[in-house]
Amino acid sequence: MTRILVVDDEPQILRALRINLRARGYDVEVAETGTAALKAAAGHPPDLVVLDLGLPDLDGVEVIRGLRGWTTIPIIVLSGRAGSADKVAALDAGADDYVTKPFGVDELLARIRAVTRRLAASPVDATATARVGRHTVDLAARTVTRDDGVEIRLTPTQWAVLERLLRHPGKLISQRQLLLEVWGPEYQQETNYLRQYLAQLRRKLEDDPARPRHLITEPGTGYRYRP
C-alpha cells in the first residue's frame, strides 16, 4: 500500500485529503508544520509527500530541501502561490510536481498516479550503461557513479528524464514526447518543467553545466544525449 504524507496547516484540507486518499486505498499520515513533516518522514519514510508551501514554521521550499538531503521520494507541492517564481523555486529545490490551490481532488489524484508511475523502472538491457562526463550511469541498477567512486543521487523524475535521453543516444527527443512520457498527456504545455529538470541534471552530471557537452538543448525543439 502506497503511504502518503500530507503536509498542510489548513485542517479542512488535511481532513478532506485524508478521507479521499484513504477511500482510494492509500495509507495516509498528516502533519501541520514543516518541523512535524520532517520528523514524520524521518521516523517512518512515506512513499510520497504532498506538501503545502505556506507552513507556519518553515517555508515549504526549506522542507523540500530538508527532505532532499537524504531521500528521493516524490514530492508534490500543493500551494496557493501561483507565481512562476514560486513554481521554479519549488521544482529547483527538488519537487516533482506543483498543483495550485484551489484544486480538484481528481486532479491531485491524477498527479499522484503520474508521479508514482515514474517510480517503476522502464525495462532496460541488464548490461545497459552510459557515460555522461565523468559519470557512469547504470540504467538497470539506476545508479550514477562518478569516476572517483562517489554515487550521485537522482530523484525519480530526474531519473525518468535522464533515462529517456540515454536510451536514445544522439537522437533528438522532442519536448512534447518527453513531457508525454515522463509527466503524461495533461502536461504537454509545461515546458518549464523540462528546463528545470535539465538544469538540475546538468548541475549534477556535466563538468560545466553552463556549457553542456552531453545533455544538449535544441532550442524550441527538444533535447538529445550526446555520448
What does this structure look like?
Helix content is 39%, strand content 21%. A hairpin with a 3-residue loop joins strand 11 (215-218) and strand 12 (222-225). The longest helix is centred in the last third of the chain and has 15 residues, at 191-205. The protein has 227 residues and is α/β, with parallel strands linked by helices. The strands form 3 sheets. The chain has a 5-stranded parallel sheet with strand order 2-1-3-4-5, sandwiched between helices. The chain has 8 helices and 12 strands. Helix 2 packs parallel to helix 3 and helix 6 crosses helix 8 (191-205). The radius of gyration is 18 Å and the shape is globular. The protein has helices at residues 11-23, 34-43, 60-68, 84-93, 105-117, 156-166, 175-182, 191-205; strands at residues 3-7, 27-31, 48-51, 75-79, 97-100, 129-132, 135-138, 143-146, 151-152, 173-174, 215-218, 222-225.
Provide tags for this entry.
227 residues; 12 strands; five-stranded parallel sheet; 8 helices
Shape: globular
The number of strands is 12
Stretches with pLDDT under 50, minimum 5 residues: none
Please give the share of residues in helix. 25-40%
* Sheet of most strands: 5 strands, parallel
**Number of helices, counting only DSSP H or I runs of 4 residues or more:** 8
User: What is the mean pLDDT?
Assistant: 89
Strand order of the largest sheet: 2-1-3-4-5
Q: Beta-sheet strand percentage? A: 15-25%
Order of helices and strands: EHEHEHEHEHEEEEHEHHEE
What topology emerges from the helices and strands here?
Elements: E1 3-7, H1 11-23, E2 27-31, H2 34-43, E3 48-51, H3 60-68, E4 75-79, H4 84-93, E5 97-100, H5 105-117, E6 129-132, E7 135-138, E8 143-146, E9 151-152, H6 156-166, E10 173-174, H7 175-182, H8 191-205, E11 215-218, E12 222-225
Parallel strand pairs: 1-2, 1-3, 3-4, 4-5
Antiparallel strand pairs: 6-7, 7-8, 8-9, 10-12, 11-12
Helix pairs in contact: 2-3, 6-8
